[in-house]
Amino acid sequence: MAIDLVSRREWNARAPLGAYTQLDSTKGVKVHYTGGRVDPAIVDDHEECVALVRSIQAYHMDGNGWVDIGYSFVGCPHRKVFEGRGLHHLPAANGPGLNSGHYAVLGLVGNAGLVQPPDELLHAILDAVEHVRARGAAGKEIKGHRDGYSTDCPGDPLYAWVRKGAPRPAGGDTPPQPGPVAPPFPGRLLSYPPVMRGEDVRTWQQRMRERGAELEADGAYGPVSREVCRAFQRQQGIVDDGVVGEVTWRLTWEAPLS
Predict the structure, then answer these.
(1) Residue 185 covered by a domain
(2) In the chain, how many domains are there?
(3) Fewest C-beta atoms under 10 Å: which of 83, 185, 188, 191?
(4) Cβ atoms within 10 A of the Cβ of 166, count?
(5) Are residues 13 and 100 in the same domain?
(6) Whole-prediction pTM value?
(7) Which of 39, 101, 111, 112 is nearest to 76 (CA)?
(8) In Å, what is the CA distance from 49 to each residue of 19, 53, 54, 79, 99?
(9) What pLDDT, on the 0 to 100 scale, is given for residue 58?
(10) Taking the CB of residue 57, how many other CB atoms lie within 10 A of it?
(11) What is the pLDDT of residues 8-34, one digit of tens each?
(12) Enclosing domain of residue 250
């Protein structure tokens, strides 16, 4: 099955407090757990998963002082994958000096309550892994948070699964199909004023039209393009400056269609 991605807008994520650090590629993924009690009721109620992810983001931003939730993606027991910091953004959860090596993927299990990861949660983690490999330039490594950092994370049951090579549970070994990959960033920021013209502008406009924007692909980046860009940036939970930089360019192709 394709990845069942819950966009930041869908889980009502707060906007980041600052700019992300660019993450070009990684050796792979570090797997995490919450480190606290997880109510087993989330297995039967996806809205409880949504609430838990929002609470984790609030703790990371208000308690830790981070710009956003510390994880790249979050897998839940309904085989859904929440978009955290997302592709090509440096996570914060792996530990000082370790964040540039791996994406950080959280599984919604803890050290009490829901401790044993359900099969659908393992599938969700692996769906996130396949996603960052296909579209985030991630390598093949799958490690636990405790590999290289002094912590109990991701807990003994989840870590035992990682140590076995993170196999797919029976009956779910179809990898997700990657979506469209962004063409290379043109190397200049698309902004207004003044009106900017070029094939890079037309390429971006055409893709935004495919996403449903009411925008003419005339190759001229003017006030209408800027407002379409700002609306898209707000939808993606990034700074809405109306400038198509490298992050906005990539998301134009890679963000889930709403």
Answers:
(1) no
(2) 2
(3) 188
(4) 17
(5) yes
(6) 0.70
(7) 39
(8) 26, 6, 9, 11, 25
(9) 97
(10) 24
(11) 999 999 999 999 999 999 999 999 999
(12) 196-254
